[in-house]
Fold these 2 entries.
Entry 1:
Amino acid sequence: MVLAFKPEEIDVLTRDHRLAIEPSTDREFSMPAVDLLNPDKCRAYLDGVAGIFESPSSVATVSLFAKRYSFLIIASSLYAMSVYNKGMDYSIENCHIESSYQGRAWLPKMRLTEWNVSQPAEGGRKEWRDQVIHSLFAENIVKAWHSLSKLGPVSKAVLWENTAIYVYWLYENKFGEGVDDIQKSRVQEDFEYLIREAPAHLFGEKKNPFARFDSPKVVTQASEAPIRIRKTCCYYYLASDEPEDYCPTCPKIKHEVVSTC
């Protein structure tokens, strides 16, 4: 496994992108990701993490957990694909949620059972990229969202937008840091493909789930920096002690657009 990645690549994936090599010592909220597809196991797990989120609502718990799950799944997989040109099996059966804290914040990591690393054949990157994306979304995330949306109940549109916001943030703000020109070009190309061009079957859906959230950033009277206003609410405010404590990009805020970026 380590031979397939350079030591410095492993360091980046584990330090910055939530990939775990070893099981966590905290087993209370660690489990095989496939357990999310078992209604009883999933419900018991969500009941536990509701205490972490201090969430009084199953709707908020599901959405907040989905945010964590989105990040720990896509951060390492998409970074490896776009920056290192390497892919791994992120099917839900091969993934384990490993509980982890930074201070008081619960920031779980993702561990893979099998580390079978692939790279594109010469001239075959587009086909290889489709395989990597299919493993990540059609064989993992959409299955998790189908199960979680029934337990919330939460619209899958909310869960997909929870994923989309991290795809945007990672590609626009993180993946381009410290890369060479070839990697930078690949990062941009993959980003454009994911949010606009990738066919629906790679996500296990009838339409590309990111395309509907593809909107320009705007400056509003309610924001100090350009933002991409969400189309759905993630229900964060339901778990907050403060009334109407919405995320800055929440559609519940009365955004008056000043300019488009």
Entry 2:
Amino acid sequence: MEKPRILLLAGGRSQEHEVSLWSAEGVLAHMPFPTDLAVIAKDGRWLLGERAQEALRAKEAPTGDHPFPPPLDWDRYQVVFPLLHGPFGEDGTVQGFLELLGKPYVGAGVAASALCLDKDLSKRVLAQAGIPVVPWVALYRGERPFIPFDPPYFVKPANTGSSIGVARVEDYAHLEAALAEAFRYDPKAVVEKALLGVRELEVGVLGNVRGEASPVGEVRYQAPFYDYETKYTPGRAELLIPAPLDPGTQETVQELALKAYRVLGIRGMARVDFFLVGEEIYLNEINTIPGFTPTSMYPRLFAAAGVPYPELLRRLVELALSPV
């Protein structure tokens, strides 16, 4: 079989625009197939060819050239790789367009993408399936907050990633300001109970329907929580792969990740994040388009499992072309 040609989509309208371009640089450097880049600017217009490369070098594209749909020869590409973090890319919107085109793409489908990005809806499904999650409530803009558990809290926009709009709240008096910040990014927010003595664990999953789990990694840092700067500034966080866990705990985390992956109907890839408090394990959230930046955990987890970066990308493309 001839090598498939890939179209990599990066940038996007979300607050994670720059993160997407950092990820795209890593993927382009390791992709084993011929690949073209298209960048979606912050205004929703598209950049193609050399203009897309200029945006990649600048790590930002405030404005684009072409309105949607862009003037692309879609028949030229066998697989599309949407590397668009957050809303308008990781939420099923782009995936729906690619479904209409009949074009295979890397990663989760429309329903799973939308479900996983929404922290409230995904928790509801996971809890119903018996997977432990941190206590939370969802609030829409304008609603009076009633929180049935004591502070401290984490307040988050329901549909963002990279800790954008997230705040840790130590007492009820500061809840309103934190909610106002979250509502800047989304009309729905979640308020989660902040657990004490937490270890943060992450595991990668690769596959369709029946995925395979990577070793479990652990993130350690000095900041009050794993915020945007800590995630993407080299040296701010320490990534331990494998995490120093007893074999039973590692196996339980991997099993929960695979169960959640199947329950939510994910394809291709995901990074599943957990909290460990003593011996209690809680699933925090699932990222259907994990980061591929220099500080990202997902490619490192599979490298530790003996799947180097180019092989990981090759398998993701093959999974996009596979019916099961």
